[in-house]
Amino acid sequence: MNTKISHAAPAIDPDDVGYNASPNPEFNGLIAARLSRRRLFGLGVGTAGAALLSACGGGSDDNTSTPAPAPAPAPAPAPAPAPAPAAQKLGFDAVAKNLADAVA
Questions:
Q1: Which residue has the higher pLDDT, 82 or 2?
Q2: CA distance 28 to 13
Q3: Distances, alpha carbon 32 to alpha carbons 25, 26, 82, in Å
Q4: Region Disordered: start and end of each range (predicted)?
Q5: CA 38 – CA 35 distance, rounded (Å)
Q6: Rg of the chain over all Cα atoms, to the nearest angstrom
Q7: What is the average per-residue pLDDT within 63-67?
Q8: What are the DSSP calls for 14-58, one per residue?
Q9: Rounded to whole angstroms, what are the CA distances from 72 to 3, 65, 75, 80?
């Protein structure tokens, strides 16, 4: 009667909310990985944008400017032909527009 009985609880309680018996990763780990991927993607986009803007702003050290040649005048557009009358596409007459709330 004086023998102590050990009722040791398992290290992981299956009834615990954070228990994951499957080999799949935990949800917190998935969220952390997604946020780190977003941060990495944002850094990549920011770096690409900075590189693009620095490439656009570059110029030469030559202070002499050469005038650009004048563009040739555009030829006059030809007049458009008159459009053909539109054929009726449906086999019935359209319903006349009205504001009456009635079914005939």
A1: 82
A2: 19
A3: 11, 10, 65
A4: 56-86
A5: 5
A6: 38
A7: 66
A8: TTSTT---SSSPPHHHHHHHHHHHHHHHHHHHHHHHHHHHHHHT-
A9: 108, 21, 9, 23
Residue 20 has a CB neighbour count (10 Å cut-off) of 13
pLDDT in tens, 76-95: 778 888 777 777 677 777 77
- Output the CA–CA distances (angstroms, integers) from residue 13 to 20, 82, 95, in the order listed: 10, 83, 72
Are 14 and 21 in contact by the 8 Å Cβ rule? The answer is yes
Overall residue count recorded for the chain in this entry: 104
Q: What is the arithmetic mean of pLDDT over 39-65?
A: 79
- Residue 45 — very low, low, confident or very high, per pLDDT cuts 50/70/90? very high
> Is the separation of the CB atoms in 36 and 42 below 8 Å?
no
Q: What is the pTM of this model?
A: 0.28
